[in-house]
Amino acid sequence: MASLVQHVAGLACPPLSGASRRPGAPVRPSALVCGTYVLSKDEKERERMRTLFDEASERCRTAPMEGITFSPEDLESAVETTDIDTDIGSLIKGTVFMTTSNGAFIDIQSKATAFLPIDEACLLDIDHIEEAGIRPGLVEQFMIIDENPNDETLILSLQSIQQDLAWERCRQLQAEDVVITGRVIGGNKGGVVALVEGLKAFVPFSQVSSKTTAEELLDKELPLKFVEVDEEQGRLVLSNRKAMADSQAQLGIGSVVLGTVESLKPYGAFIDIGGINGLLHVSQISHDRVADISTVLQPGDTLKVMILSHDRERGRVSLSTKKLEPTPGDMIRNPKLVFEKADEMAQIFRQRIAQAEAMARADMLRFQPESGLSLSSEGILGPLSSDAPQDEGLSADE
Questions:
Q1: In this structure, is residue 26 part of a structural domain?
Q2: Contact, 156 vs 116, CB < 8 A?
Q3: Cys-Cys crosslink for 108: which of 94, 265, 297, 384, Cβ 3.0 to 4.6 Å?
Q4: Is 54 part of a structural domain of the chain?
Q5: Same domain, 221 and 278
Q6: pLDDT tens-digit profile of 75-128?
Q7: Which domain holds residue 221?
Q8: What are phi and psi of 141, to 5 degrees?
Q9: Beta bridge partners of 374
Q10: For the ranges 5-19, 141-155, 296-310, which has the lowest average pLDDT?
Q11: How many domains is the chain partitioned into structurally?
């Protein structure tokens, strides 16, 4: 550093323009000015933005409406003349922009504020608005159901729209006479309450196929058919018996099903056959007389029964074990054998039914010899044999 100072001090610098040195004054070394200050790229950008901000701030202070052709009065007039129907019962499209613990605020493109309460968000009882799928950004159609007089906030509802659609759906399902599924959510001494298409429906105990309590059916799903759909009275009544009878009807007369003894009565036993309660009458237990049903059956017993008939209107099925006995009285003496031979005996029973039907058809044809049919000894209709007399009908023995 010392050598650099010495070197610089020895340099001869010309006098500044217009400057004069006093004669005889000592010569002093001139000060060294070297290098220039250069702004970086980021600093230049910050300087440019600062300048723009200062200019904009000055314009806002001195001429805030410069370049704007839409005045505040024009905005107010546009809002006033916007054609939005805000009458109670009207449908309006809106966008969810904020949710709270009590509901959601809806933007309906109007100066009026709109709010969707949590209990109007859907048909179900929910604890949080998000459970109904209500989130910011959701665009939906709402129904205006009320207005808060304190702040003129419009009260909206999705539940009202969903309720109308649910009733319409129930009317359609009733007209189609289809089987639906409902979840039991409660009950009373008269029956159970099931959730169907989001609506609460009543199922009387007289229309429940199995003998059970409301507590035992709670949270279970039941097959149901509509009995009454009355939106004006708010009545929605369904039947489990009809639904079960409808599904069991496909088994047909003579089908063998597995059942469980539910309860005993003096006149017979109620058997649960896959959700429907069938009656095994005391006369259909065995060919031998049964004086006391409890000596043959007990609640909880598993057995095979034959379907004798369906009453679809009343949701009842008649059953028999008598038809499944290999020999009369086996249901009393050897019920295990009846269980093992049930399918075999049912096949024999169906063959007898088919033969009886063929006999009946042949009896009808006996007065129509031109049909060219005859009945074999096995009860099968076939072409009339060539050696059989053509002009005589079948005898009573045949």
A1: no
A2: yes
A3: 94
A4: no
A5: no
A6: 566 555 555 667 888 899 999 999 999 999 999 887 778 999 999 999 888 899
A7: 175-244
A8: -100, 130
A9: 382
A10: 5-19
A11: 3
